[in-house]
Amino acid sequence: MSIAMIIVAAGRGTRAGGEEPKQWQMLAGQPVLRHTIASCYKALASANAECARVVVVLHPDDMARGLALTGGAVTLVAGGNTRDASVRNALEALADQNISKVLIHDGARPLLPAEVLTGVLHALDGHPAAAPALPVTDALWTGAEDLVSGTRDRTGLYRAQTPQGFRFDAILAAHRAHEGPAADDVEIVRMAGMDVAITLGHEDNLKITYPADFARAEAILRARKDAAMDVRLGNGYDVHAFTEGDHVVLCGVKIPHSKALLGHSDADVGMHALTDAIYGALAQGDIGRHFPPSDPQWKGAASWIFLDHAAKLARKMGYRISNADVTLICERPKVGPHAPEMMAELARIMEIEPDRVSVKATTSERLGFTGREEGIASIATVTLIAE
């Protein structure tokens, strides 16, 4: 089963005020859209959902800005003149990707709770479409000229939210057949004759529409931070045996030696341990999960590719790397003279300050396989802090 997520952020709404569209306005020091993307990744991870693609739909004028914001970590698609046209552009971009389920989310909903997304995914196991909503609890009036002109029964009425989820083939066919405007994707699939399951929404899953919504969203973010500061620790351990060669690569630095390290990739034992520490802190498995050794494309690959992926995944999930500590366990080669260069290289790949990275070495007092100089081991610890 393959899942994709579409984040629609191509609008030019003016009700939120400000000099630019709401998705680009600042919320707690970051653009609204960045919060939205991070909350989607965290919700997907919490649901243990293997997301094949995340697609962000932007106004054609914002594509370069979107690339700078996301660093190429998501697929960017240019939107159309209407919301349904923007969604269709994204669906067409996924048409040949073997997607089975798709979630469509508003770019201006930056506080997606994980349980909302999980509820939609579970409902899709038994329905072609599902969407979160909250029952209307307030009295409903009609009005004219600032006077109440009548009341309406609120029984059976809901406030719709996103992400709205669909079987991919069904929503694509519905969009291709649809003509004219639509309030959302639920309306489009219902016009195609499909049932839509209602799942439980959440009050925090607000859509920023008016200027006051920014203050409300910041208050929710502060309350979440105060309730539980999200600090994660991860550790990694790796071992590689010696083989014939004339150098080793440790923490990204080539060191002359009488032997080389044996491995499917470049066998950088220090970088592998650090990469696994980041994946571990994120509860995202290990290198083998993301870069299977059975896949020949990774044979001989440079280990910075793995570390770069782990660091970017941490940022996408809303975390920053606070510090990293790597210990190399070997008799030889001597690591100390190369440690500053190693720390600088690891910091460069992870895009953090060099003083947040430590590389050190120890021996095993001639005990065990490292003591017999049969290979090198490494342990690593990393701290991640939610942004």
UniProtKB/TrEMBL annotation:
Top-level taxon of the source organism: Bacteria
InterPro entries per record: IspD, IspD/F, IspD/TarI, ISPD_synthase_CS, MECDP_synthase, MECDP_synthase_CS, MECDP_synthase_sf, Nucleotide-diphossugar_trans
EC annotation from Swiss-Prot or TrEMBL: 2.7.7.60, 4.6.1.12
Positions of region (2-C-methyl-D-erythritol 2,4-cyclodiphosphate synthase): 232-387
PROSITE patterns xref list: ISPD, ISPF
Region of interest (2-C-methyl-D-erythritol 4-phosphate cytidylyltransferase), ranges: 1-231
Sites marked Transition state stabilizer: R15, K22, H264, T363
Signal sequence region: none
One example GO MF annotation: 2-C-methyl-D-erythritol 4-phosphate cytidylyltransferase activity
Pathway: Isoprenoid biosynthesis; isopentenyl diphosphate biosynthesis via DXP pathway; isopentenyl diphosphate from 1-deoxy-D-xylulose 5-phosphate: step 2/6; Isoprenoid biosynthesis; isopentenyl diphosphate biosynthesis via DXP pathway; isopentenyl diphosphate from 1-deoxy-D-xylulose 5-phosphate: step 4/6
Keyword set, alphabetical order: Isoprene biosynthesis, Lyase, Metal-binding, Multifunctional enzyme, Nucleotidyltransferase, Transferase
Record keyword Transferase present: yes
Family: Belongs to the IspF family. In the N-terminal section; belongs to the IspD/TarI cytidylyltransferase family. IspD subfamily.
Protein name: Bifunctional enzyme IspD/IspF
Organism in which the protein naturally occurs: Thioclava kandeliae
Gene name, Swiss-Prot/TrEMBL: ispDF
